[in-house]
C-alpha cells in the first residue's frame, strides 16, 4: 500500500555528525509493509523502499529514521521529525551523492547509476506531486458541489411531491400523528385528519391554521372521525375522506394501540382488539382507498409499524404480532402495487416519547396507564415526524428509525437467533421476577 506523507523538515545525522537539513523538493512515498519487526515503530511500521536504496521508518511522535547507502555502498542513517500535511512529501536534498569522477568504476559507478534511476523516479513523483497538489482542491470542491446540488435537487423534488398533495393521517389526535400533521401541513400538504376524538382534532386544526408558515400555500385541514376497530365505520369514513379533496395522494396509517401483559393471562378479546386497531383497521382503510389510487395510477401508502414489527419482546405479544403482520402485509402490497406506480413505505420507529404506554391495553383489556421509562426516554415525536416526512418525500420503502441497540437486535435476530432468543428469555425472567416481587 502507498501512503504519501509530508517530510517538510528532517534533522539528519550523517557520518556521526548531526547535520540539520531541509527536505523539500521532491515527493516521496511511504510503502507500508504491514508487518514491521521494528519494536520502535508505533503505531505501525512504515517502509519506504526504492529498491536497494534505503528505508524510512516512522517512529512514535513523528520521528523518522532514514537508512540509505552512500555511493560506496556504505549504509548510513538519519533521524528526524516528520511534520506537515500528510498528503504530500518533499525532499530538498538528494542524499544520494554526486556523480562519480571519471576514474571511478565498479561499485561507485553502479551506485551512481542507481542514484540516476532514483532521480528519474523522483522526477516522476514530483510531477505526480504537482498534479495531486493542484488537482486535489478542485476535485474536493467539485465533489462537495455535486453533493450539495444533488441534495438541493432531492429537497426540491421532495417539496414538489408533498406540496398540495392530499395526505390522510390516522391517529392525528395525539403523539406521532399530531406531529406528522404539523410537519406535512408546513410542507404545504392538504390534510385529512382522522381520529376518534373530534375535539382533539378541532384543537389541532385551529393550531395548524393559526401557525404562520409563509413559504408555501396552506390548505385548511378536514377532519374525519371514526374508530379503526369498527369495520363498518371504515367504509363510511373512506367515502368521507374521498369527498374532502376528491382524491388521496398519501395515506399514513399511524393510529395504533400498545399492549402489556403475559400471554397466559391475556383474554382473546384483547388480542383481537389490538389486531383490529393495529392491523385489520389499517388494512381495511388501505383496501378501501386503493381503487381510487389505482385508477389515477398515483398514490403512496405509509404504515407506521415499530421495531417490534421486526423483533418480538416478551409481554408485548399482541402488539408485536400486530406489527409483524403489518410489516408482512405492506411488504406484499409494495410488490403488488409497483405496476400501478403506487409507493409503499413501512416505517419502524424505536421508542418515541408519546402517550402510547399510557394508552396501552393490559391482559384484561384495561388501560395500562403508566408512562414506561423506555417510552419517556424515547425520541421526541416531532423529530420522528420529520423523519417520516423525509421518508415519504424520498419514497423510501422500508425505514428503521431507532437507536443502535434496537437496530443491532434486528441483525442479531437474523444472524444469531439462538443468542437473541436466550437474551429475550432472560429479559422475560427478569420482568417476571420484578412483577412477582
Ligand atoms: N410511542 C412509541 O414508542 C412508538 C414506537 C414505535 C411505533 N409506534 C407507533 O406509532 C403510532 C402512533 O403512536 P403514538 O406513539 O403516537 O401513540 P399515541 O400518542 O397513543 O397515539 C395513538 C393514536 O392512535 C389513535 N387510536 C388509537 N386507537 C384508535 C382506534 N381504535 N381508532 C382510531 N384511532 C385510534 C389514538 O387516537 P385517540 O386519541 O382517539 O385514542 C391516537 O391518536 C402507533 O402505530 C404506534 O404503534 C409508537
From TrEMBL:
One of its GO terms (cellular component) is cytoplasm. The chain crosses the membrane at residues 127-150. Keywords: Membrane, NAD, NADP, Oxidoreductase, Transmembrane, Transmembrane helix. One of its GO terms (molecular function) is oxidoreductase activity, acting on the CH-OH group of donors, NAD or NADP as acceptor. PROSITE patterns: ADH_SHORT. Pfam families: adh_short (PF00106). The keyword Acyltransferase does not apply. InterPro entries: NAD(P)-bd_dom_sf (IPR036291), Sc_DH/Rdtase_CS (IPR020904), SDR_fam (IPR002347). CDD domains: 11beta-HSD1_like_SDR_c. Belongs to the short-chain dehydrogenases/reductases (SDR) family. Putative oxidoreductase. PANTHER family: DEHYDROGENASE/REDUCTASE SDR FAMILY MEMBER 7B, DEHYDROGENASE_REDUCTASE SDR FAMILY MEMBER 7B. This is Dehydrogenase/reductase SDR family member 7B. It comes from Rhinolophus ferrumequinum (Greater horseshoe bat).
